[in-house]
Amino acid sequence: MKPQRPLVAQRPLARHSEALLRPAPAAAELLPVLARAGESLARKLRLALAPLHGGEAAMVECSPPAEMAAGAFAPPGLVAISLLAAGATGHPLLSAIEGDTVLRLLDRAFGGPGEAPSPLPRELPLSAELMVQRIETLIAAPLAAALGLEGGIRPSRRAATMAELAVLAEVTPLAVLTFAIREGARPAWSLRLGFPMASLADLTGAARPAPGPARAGAPADPRDPPFADMPLTVRAVLVDVPLPLATLSALEIGQVLAVPVARSVPLRVGEALVGHGTVGEVDDRVALQLTQLA
């Protein structure tokens, strides 16, 4: 069909910015960014996980990011898998902890030696789910800080298998960080975090706009008023002894309880952990020498 008159554009053709047409970052660019976030998170987890180890700071090491399908994310056997929502948009994240680790931490929390039953149960009890919930709470703030997420990290739900969780297809590609956590001579335990590759650019900040120029002016100095005059209560927890209910109900006058003081005493302002120190004496008064700041 031939038009009777030549076609003429009614308005100028759109001209798109090259920045808008720029392709999304590739995995090769994103994995090093995730590796740096993992190293930062490992340093933050040393103190964040201290409540699970009697106030002792643990040694935390992060492995390089590994690429795998969602179906292979959870370790075999008894395991606790958590779905986390990240940032304001709720990007899904995964965490996995082996079941024997959860039961060892649970036994220790109730005053035991930190041993898992043998053989392991077929599924985790309700008390173990509460321990998993506590671990989620302890890692949420450090993980959000390591990724630079303003919306924070929020636990969503838990399951024993990826199929039961039913949030990602088995073939969904993930970038996985594995953290080895060791306290003294106790057996190490591992924490695995899974990041969907499709949202990795948003989670690591690679897709966020560059920050604008910093405003002139120095930050406020806490030694200047009015901050310097603000009273704060600093609390050092010298002894925290978990006792089984049976032992507590059988206490008698004159009974001696062993209350060993931890080598590293946590120092808190309110609920915030500000550091650790060792107990000593200065001028006939109990004193705390700081050995590590949060």
Distance between the termini: 76 Å
Order of helices and strands: HEEEEHHEHEEHEHEEE
Oligomer: single chain
Structural class: alpha+beta
Structural notes for this entry:
The relative contact order is 0.16. Strands 1, 2, 3, 4, 5, 6 and 7 form a seven-stranded antiparallel β-sheet that branches. The protein has a four-stranded antiparallel β-sheet with strand order 8-9-10-11, with no helix packed on it. The protein has two domains: 27-204, CheC-like (Chemotaxis protein chec, 3-Layer(aba) Sandwich), CATH 3.40.1550.10; 233-246 and 257-293, no CATH class. The chain has 294 residues and is an alpha+beta fold. It is built from six helices and eleven strands. The model has no long low-confidence stretch (mean pLDDT 83).
